[in-house]
Amino acid sequence: MGLFETVVIALWAMLPAYVPNNAAVLAGGGRPIDGGRTWNGQRLLGDGKTLRGTAVGILAGAALAVALNAVAPAVADLLGADLPTFPLAVVLALPAGAMLGDILASFLKRRTGRERGTAFPGLDQLDFVVVSLLLAFLAAPDWFAEVFTLPVLAVVVVATPLLHLTTNGIAYQLGFKDEPY
Length: 181
Fold this sequence. Notes:
Oligomer: single chain
Distance between the termini: 33 Å
Number of strands: 2
Largest sheet: 2 strands, antiparallel
Order of helices and strands: HEEHHHHH
Strand order of the largest sheet: 1-2
Strand content: under 5%
Radius of gyration: 17 Å
Shape: elongated
């Protein structure tokens, strides 16, 4: 597999995990997941992690995975790459893992005394990747091993922070986010 195909597969396979947090920002608001609860004087998660945002994020990622399955043969022919399709368990695991990773990162930020919106380099860019990959592996280990080869994982780890910073910068410029990271 050449570099082009490796990059295409990495981005394609991660799209259902890339979209949920962006969808959550657009649809967020409403009741916080933690209900305002605190632990040692700090919020568990904060107002930015809502039930509506989480549900919309998971649904958006799952819908995208289903849509990608539908267009995979045509796009594969167009690009000349052998694109994976997503088994049902992965349709749910990738976006749910992305949202759970973001929630866990928020929890860690609160435990380390960081306020909502404060940068936590590394964690901010890869939290959702690690948990979405873990859930995908648990949901479909054979599929995971076939799709997420070491070169594909390397592309994911390098490309994700760049994509994350770019999309967050755009969302900040459009007024959807309070900080550009």
